[in-house]
Write a sequence for this structure.
């Protein structure tokens, strides 16, 4: 081959002037920083700590904990808005000691509802005779 590197061009042999320089990054400006979202900003702010005096002692707690303490104290003092906000937070985050309620309907409730719907669908229009002996057919709920 030739001693001149400019002559050795072709497949997998790029020109020397276009090759990466030794010691220099291929991406000198780096990856662009991600834009902060409202959620990430809020979480970062709530994680910051502050000093609170409690029972004559200074404690460091997060802003999130301070917010909850303030909201709870206002709710105890019968501030109805604070009570509503605290209950909404408890419902949203599942912060209750109770077992989660069973959201499945009882089969007898389903039968009652189905019978009601059948009666409503068969309800005569204005001025028609009503048959008190008519019973709706109800299918049992099979699972």
């Amino acid at each position: 081959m030739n001693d001149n590197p400019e002559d050795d061009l072709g497949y997998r042999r790029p020109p020397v002037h276009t090759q990466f320089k030794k010691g220099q990054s291929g991406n000198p400006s780096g990856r662009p920083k991600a834009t902060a979202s409202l959620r990430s900003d809020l979480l970062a702010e709530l994680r910051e700590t502050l000093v609170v005096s409690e029972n004559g002692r200074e404690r460091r707690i997060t802003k999130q904990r301070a917010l909850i303490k303030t909201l709870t104290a206002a709710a105890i003092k019968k501030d109805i808005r604070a009570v509503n906000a605290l209950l909404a937070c408890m419902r949203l985050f599942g912060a209750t000691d109770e077992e989660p309620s069973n959201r499945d309907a009882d089969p007898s409730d389903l039968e009652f509802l189905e019978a009601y719907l059948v009666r409503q669908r068969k309800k005569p229009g204005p001025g028609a005779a009503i048959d008190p002996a008519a019973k709706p057919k109800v299918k049992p709920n099979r699972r």
The helical segments are 38-47, 63-76, 80-93, 107-122. The chain has a mean pLDDT of 81. Residues 85 and 91 are 10 Å apart (CA to CA). The first strand starts at residue 49 and ends at 54.
